[in-house]
Specification:
The protein has about 110 residues and is mostly helical. It has one domain. Helix 1 runs antiparallel to helix 2. The longest helix is centred in the middle third of the chain and has 25 residues. The chain starts with 14 loop residues before the first helix and ends with a helix.
Length: about 110
């Protein structure tokens, strides 16, 4: 008889510590996506979505690189499952990357 494979994802150790924050951010993301876009320019309608996406990535980045509160296994799990943006974090890891990114984001918001 063949083995039955389930589609359950096995969460790594430490997941229960970051799960509530990620769930809250996911709920905010759903609200931002379902929010009405009446009277807003196309780019203005996307700002809340980008902000929440960056906030999730920043949360994972800080936990792993700055505070060192999560293990590499959990960090990679979050990246693989789409809880954080790999490319954005790669940009922040570069020397001066985060400061340059904040500066560029500031000027993009002003325009």
């Amino acid at each position: 008889m063949p083995k039955i494979k389930t589609s359950r994802v096995k969460y790594p150790e430490g997941w229960e510590l970051i799960e509530p924050t990620l769930r809250d951010l996911e709920a905010k993301m759903r609200e931002a996506e379902n929010d009405t876009h009446d009277g807003k320019r196309k780019c203005e309608a996307l700002w809340p979505i980008f902000r929440i996406s960056h906030q999730k990535s920043r949360y994972i980045y800080d936990l792993y690189y700055r505070r060192k509160e999560i293990k590499r296994e959990l960090y990679e799990f979050c990246l693989d499952q789409g809880y954080a943006d790999k490319n954005l974090i790669a940009k922040w890891k570069k020397v001066g990357g985060l400061d340059h990114f904040r500066h560029a984001l500031f000027w993009a918001c002003i325009k």
